[in-house]
């Protein structure tokens, strides 16, 4: 490195140290942005962290926070990867990027690459070609230092969590994220990626999985648990436990006092088999208590104010076909409103003051209309207040909706707290 490059890099390092004092982190968000942001806010509040959203788009959030660790990131369900912002600038200096990557190089083997966020397609192509050429130059420089290296590429604009993990770019390399938000550029190295393999294994590898009844994705269950802001010694109840997804994710997070109920014996048996399978992979001291119990009889098995948090996906109605009639949806809405109102009455009895209900409600898609339950007044009269983790972010739409393309039933996550 020549004298001028050394001087530039010293300036870059000093700037980097200033950024560390402010602790700007970037988070690569999941496909449902509001859910990812709400989960971050809920966790920051639970951990007592001071935070501020600096910039955000459909892929990235730049957040100022006092501190954040890989262990904390591992508890999240809604972010793909994260890292510390090493530089923010109004113009990218290629030499700064080169110097930063060279400083990261490991003596034995070094895999590096670039991920681009927030660029228009034409911009992305141009900058991709520019950094590809620079990447080849970096490889040549590393070769003169007797360092074996590989420029990792992807067909997409970003290196996915899978690629970053498989290429060992966290410990033995560098995934440099170049993010453009509101005409500013943010550069940062990935510090951790989501454990996609473990989530996939708990989703598709468990012995009991009933896709016909609508499987709750483990990542969504994880986010819902984080919305509850529970502590490990809290008492958790899933009163519609199905095949046990919420309970499994709670165990992975380290929760110990867990109850699962369902009116279906098949569901309870499925949950038990899945928990036996999970126990071979995750260490937990006590098997959750499972019971065949309809939601209207919760007060027979649980004392008043004995539960800290309720996290659940209830019955969402019969599977819909594309030929569904509006009358069928209206009938389902009436049926579910009655069921959910009864459920919340029982929840109000057994929840401790300050306890939360994190529950999924369906949104039915009918001829480009979104039809859902209107139960706010009923639940408020039972002594609950709605929780909005996105209020601080001042977004135009604060709804928490989990959806996939062509899905006829979307999931709306509702968070209510007992007063």
UniProtKB/TrEMBL annotation:
One of its GO terms (biological process) is tRNA methylation. Pfam families: UPF0020 (PF01170). Coiled coil: none annotated. InterPro entries: RlmKL-like_Mtase, SAM-dependent_MTases_sf. Residues 210-263 form the Ribosomal RNA large subunit methyltransferase K/L-like methyltransferase domain. GO terms for molecular function: tRNA (guanine) methyltransferase activity. PANTHER family: THUMP DOMAIN-CONTAINING (PTHR14911), TRNA (GUANINE(6)-N2)-METHYLTRANSFERASE THUMP3 (PTHR14911:SF13). This is Ribosomal RNA large subunit methyltransferase K/L-like methyltransferase domain-containing protein. The lineage of its organism: Bacteria, Candidatus Komeiliibacteriota.
């Amino acid at each position: 490195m020549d004298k001028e490059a050394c001087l530039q890099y010293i300036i870059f390092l000093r700037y980097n140290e200033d950024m560390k004092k402010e602790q700007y982190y970037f988070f690569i968000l999941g496909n449902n942005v509001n859910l990812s942001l709400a989960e971050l806010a809920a966790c920051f509040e639970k951990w007592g962290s001071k935070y501020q959203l600096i910039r955000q788009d459909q892929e990235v959030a730049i957040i100022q926070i006092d501190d954040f660790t890989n262990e904390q990131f591992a508890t999240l369900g809604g972010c793909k990867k994260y890292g510390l912002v090493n530089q923010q600038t109004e113009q990218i200096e290629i030499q700064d990027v080169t110097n930063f990557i060279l400083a990261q190089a490991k003596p034995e083997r070094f895999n590096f690459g670039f991920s681009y966020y927030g660029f228009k397609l034409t911009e992305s192509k141009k900058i991709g070609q520019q950094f590809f050429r620079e990447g080849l130059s970096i490889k040549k420089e590393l070769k003169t230092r007797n360092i074996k290296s590989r420029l990792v590429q992807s067909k997409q604009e970003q290196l996915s969590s899978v690629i970053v993990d498989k290429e060992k770019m966290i410990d033995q390399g560098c995934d440099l994220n170049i993010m453009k938000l509101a005409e500013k550029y943010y550069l940062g190295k990935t510090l951790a990626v989501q454990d996609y393999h473990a989530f996939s294994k708990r989703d598709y590898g468990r012995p009991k999985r009933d896709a016909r009844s609508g499987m709750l994705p483990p990542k969504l269950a994880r986010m819902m648990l984080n919305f509850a802001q529970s502590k490990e010694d809290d008492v958790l109840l899933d009163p519609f436990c199905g095949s046990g997804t919420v309970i499994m994710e709670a165990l992975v997070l380290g929760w110990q006092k867990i109850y699962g109920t369902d009116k279906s014996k098949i569901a309870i048996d499925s949950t038990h088999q899945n928990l036996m399978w999970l126990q071979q992979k995750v260490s937990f001291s006590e098997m959750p208590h499972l019971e065949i119990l309809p939601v209207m009889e919760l007060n027979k098995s649980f004392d008043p104010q004995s539960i800290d948090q309720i996290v659940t996906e209830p019955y969402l109605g019969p599977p819909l076909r594309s030929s569904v009639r509006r009358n069928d949806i209206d009938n389902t809405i009436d049926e579910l409103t009655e069921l959910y109102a009864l459920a919340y009455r029982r929840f109000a009895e057994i929840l401790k003051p300050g306890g939360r209900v994190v529950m999924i409600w369906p949104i039915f898609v009918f001829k480009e209309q979104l039809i859902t339950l209107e139960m706010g007044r009923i639940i408020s009269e039972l002594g609950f207040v709605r929780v909005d983790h996105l209020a601080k972010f001042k977004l135009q739409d604060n709804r928490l909706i989990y959806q996939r393309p062509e899905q006829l039933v979307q999931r709306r996550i509702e968070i209510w707290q007992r007063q």
